[in-house]
Every structure is written in C-alpha cells, then in structure tokens.
Amino acid sequence: MSKRGKILLIIGVILIALIVIFVSLYFYFLTPVTRSSNVVNFTVNAGDSKTEIVANLKNADLIKNEYATLMYILVSGNTNIQAGNYELNRNMSTKDIIRTLANGDIINAQREYVNITFREGITLEEYLELLSDNTNLEYDTIVAEINSQDFLNELIADYWFLTDDILNNDLYYGLEGYLYPNTYQIHTETTLNEVVRKMLDETARQLADIREDIENSNYSVHEILTMASIAEKEAMNYEDRTKVAQVIYTRLDLGMNLGMDVTTYYGVGKRMTETLTELDLADDNPYNTRNASLIGLPVGPICNPSKESISAVLNPADTNYIYFFADIVTGNVYFTDKFSEFQEFQELYG
Question: Band of the pLDDT at 110, cuts 50, 70, 90?
Fold first, then answer.
C-alpha cells in the first residue's frame, strides 16, 4: 500500500471511530438521568422556543444534555411541543419526555393539592401523621415503607447528604432529620416516594450554601444533623442554640455523657408535653443520652431541624459552658460552667 493509501486508511479509521463515539454519546445522553422515580412538575409556556424548553428541562434535571435533546427533537419530528403543565419523572428517557410534551399529556386540571406545614422540630413520625391526615397515604403503610432498605438506597444514590449512616438498624427512622421542615403543596393522591423526594429536594436547596462548611467539618453530615436536632429541641432562638452546640462539643471532647432530656423523650417515644419517669431516664436505647452508659451522640437525629439550628452547630458560640438548663415553660435557657449553679437552675426553674 502506498504512503498516500496508508494515510487515507488512518483518516478513515479515525473518522469511523469518531462517528461511533458520537453516536454512542448521543444515545447515552438520551437515557434517563436516574433510575429512581422522582416526579417533577414542569411547565411549557406559550411562546417558549425549543431552545428555551430544552434549557428548562436541563435546569430541572430531567435530561442529560441539551444538544442531544435538540437533535432528537429535529430527528424524531416531535417539534410541535404543546404548552401546559406536565408531570414528568427523572427516570423517563429523553425520548419519552419529548413525546409527552409533543402529545400534550398535561396534568389533569382537576387533580387536587393541599398545603401541609411541617414545623421545625417535629419528628418524622409526626410528618407521617400529617400526611395520612391530609392525603391518600395510609399511616401504617408509609411507616413500614419509609424504612425500606431498597427505598433508602435509591435515595442515597440521588442526594449527596444521604449516606450509609441512614441504613443503621438502630435508627427508628433512617430519614429522621433529613426532611426539611417547610410548607409543601402536595397532591391529595400521591405516593410516599413523591413526597419524600419533594422534601429532600428542599433539603438540598437549603444546604447548598453551607455544603462546603458541612463537608469541611470534623463531623459527618449525620452527626451535624443529630446535633442540630438536639439544639432545635433545647432552645428557642439562634443565640441559645449556638451555646447548646458549644456545650455538646465540649462534652464530646471531655468524653462526658450528654445527659439531655430531649433525647430521652425521643428514645422512649414520648412527646415533650408528657412527663419523663425514672424508668424513662434509665431506658437503654440508642438515643437516650440520660442513660449513663451512652457516651457521645445518640444514634441519629431526634427531629427535623431548621437551617438555623444546622448553622448554629456549624458556628457554635465561643463560650466555655458545660451545663445548661432549659425552662420548657418560658423557653429560657440558663448556661453555666459550674455544676453547683446548674443544680440551682434545676431548683429554681425545674
């Protein structure tokens, strides 16, 4: 073969290789962004261009690549995308999404929604009660479903702040502390997966600007949320919560028992309005820091904390307190570095 022939052969091989790579990438970019079900409400406004629609799909994390999607629209002939509100899923392929938009399969306008407020500091169990009271979800069913290992593993794959820590069998609920408290618009006919992902999406938004602080901490995100949940329950305002966080860090450093009643309430399944007994305080469960045998943090969060409480844990007060007494009647918290003063607080405000 002549030198010219060899050069043409090499060029041909390279061109074929490039075509194969291009085609492979094209079809890869048309595959779903995730295998997990994650419902997204998506709107196509009248007058939106194809480029704008595709950019919005990418921003909603519904497609992998804008250029591949635009190419598919042209090649497939599905160019007549219709305006409307759509219910799409991140486990849909780009082909299925574009077909849905082209067919105009909009959400049934008669579908009912309800606004449900999940307050800071309430537990996941209370979340589930609110859901069962306001939607089609049955309490007993979702209590069992929310701790499914398969379900939790799917969520871990999709959210950076969820780790194998939530798979610990000692946890009452693996997602306790991770579902951000807020007011959500929820379908009255819904699924637990849809609701949980809506809340986790909000958690991701809330943690976005403090993610670096969390990842640079000496503690895991699970430990940070655990401490934040304690601070949420023990104090009413940000300043006091930073002091509670400081006490927690100090006691951890000293190898002391945390000795915090709020963990006992959660551990024995009592609400804060109930009275703790001596048996409750001594109960041997992985949350009860009043039990002298539990040194360190409880196994997980005891409620779903606000961003303020998470920030308080990331920015503890520059104080040297070791003890505090929280007056549940007034909401005041009294701090000291002396045990004798702590005993006085108990006598005065207990």
Answer: low
Task: Output the domain CATH number for residue 47.
Answer: 3.30.1490.480
54-65 pLDDT per residue, tens: 999 999 999 999
**Tokens describing residue 93:** 């392929």
**Do 135 and 53 sit in the same domain of this protein?**
no
pLDDT, tens only, 262-289: 999 999 999 888 999 999 999 999 999 9
The answer to whether residues 234 and 344 belong to one domain is yes
* Percent of the chain whose predicted confidence (pLDDT) is above 90: 60
115 phi, psi to nearest 5 deg: -90, 125
pLDDT category at 76 given cuts 50, 70, 90 is confident
Q: What's the distance, Cα to Cα, between the start and end of the chain in Å? A: 98
Tokens 């959400």 sit at which residue? 107
Q: Could you give the CA distance from residue 181 to residue 309 in angstroms, rounded to a whole number?
A: 12
DSSP labels, 261-323: HHHHHHHHT--TTSPPPHHHHH---TT-TTSTT--SS-SS-SS---HHHHHHHHS--S----E
* Domain boundary residue, one of 186, 208, 230: 208
Total domains in the fold of the chain: 3
Phi-psi region of 280 (alpha: psi -120 to 50; beta: other; left: phi over 0): alpha
Let me know if residue 2 belongs to a domain: no
Query: Contact 37/89 with Cβ under 8 angstroms?
Result: yes
Instruction: Determine the structural domain holding residue 341 and report its residue range.
Output: 220-349
